[in-house]
Design goal:
With 247 residues, the chain is α+β, with helices and mostly antiparallel strands. Helix content is 37%, strand content 18%. It is built from six helices and twelve strands. The strands form four sheets. The protein has a four-stranded antiparallel beta sheet, covered by helices on one side. A four-stranded mixed beta sheet has the order 9-10-7-11. The chain has a two-stranded antiparallel sheet with strand order 1-4.
């Protein structure tokens, strides 16, 4: 017997972004991203929902909507202030939000590259639960085994992600971020910066931990882009690679 929750169903995010979609769009032209595959060297134009930028159900819906979305929204407000032009001073709360977003970016990338398989419980369930009911339960943190006695990997990934975020919050406590703007040349966005605490905001602005607010020339932009390329594992994104030195 299947059990179904009444309509209307709560929204389910099936294609989950690793780096925020809003951040990707700031590097886009007409909704598409010039993307370099660092393995093959091929450059192509992709949408923000293309495979390199998303994972399909990598973690549970409650983590997506209740934990990650608030971090992205808070970070988006700060990013908009920074990119709005004029002088800006980041307070302690803003630095903390940036640290949370940086940590979330790294944690989601790790989980996307290391998906968790279903966990077998060694038993079969007496009753089956429909996929829709399982999906809706995820909004409330309900972990539901499948009829064949397995817990989907995404339902395990969610709590692990939350624990990782808590650990990172302690490690990153007190971290301060500098606003680095380019006066010549543009920054690229990699899938990751390795151990370097750098987070691009736009082709002309990035955030760097333990750095002063500064405007830099093409030499520094070139060095940062070279670091991005050396540490990326899948892709680099740019508004226009022809104006990105160091690549």
């Amino acid at each position: 017997m299947n059990y179904h929750l009444p309509n209307p169903p709560l929204q389910i995010t099936k294609r989950q972004h690793i780096f925020p979609r809003s951040g990707l769009l700031r590097f886009s032209e007409r909704g598409r991203l010039q993307t370099l595959n660092v393995v093959t060297g091929k450059i192509q134009w992709l949408t923000p929902y293309a495979a390199p930028f998303v994972v399909t159900r990598g973690w549970d819906q409650r983590s997506e909507s209740a934990i990650m979305s608030p971090i992205e929204r808070s970070f988006g407000i700060i990013a908009k202030r920074i990119l709005g032009g004029g002088a800006i001073t980041l307070d302690i709360a803003a630095h903390s939000v940036i640290s949370d977003m940086y940590s979330l970016w790294r944690i989601r990338l790790h989980r996307a590259k290391n998906p968790l398989p279903p966990l077998p419980l060694g038993m079969r369930m007496e009753r089956s639960v429909s996929e829709d009911a399982m999906d809706q339960g995820e909004h409330y943190g309900i972990i539901t085994p499948t009829f064949d006695g397995k817990i989907p990997g995404r339902m395990i990934a969610g709590p692990l992600l939350q624990l990782a975020l808590d650990r990172q919050a302690k490690i990153m406590s007190g971290k301060r971020w500098g606003i680095v703007r380019s006066k010549e040349g543009e920054f690229v966005l990699p899938d990751c910066f390795g151990d370097f605490m750098v987070m691009p905001l736009s082709p002309n602005c990035c955030l760097i931990a333990d750095n002063d607010d500064v405007t830099v020339g093409i030499e520094v932009v070139s060095k940062l882009n070279a670091v991005a390329k050396a540490n990326s594992t899948t892709y680099l994104v740019a508004r226009d690679f022809s104006v990105c030195p160091g690549i």
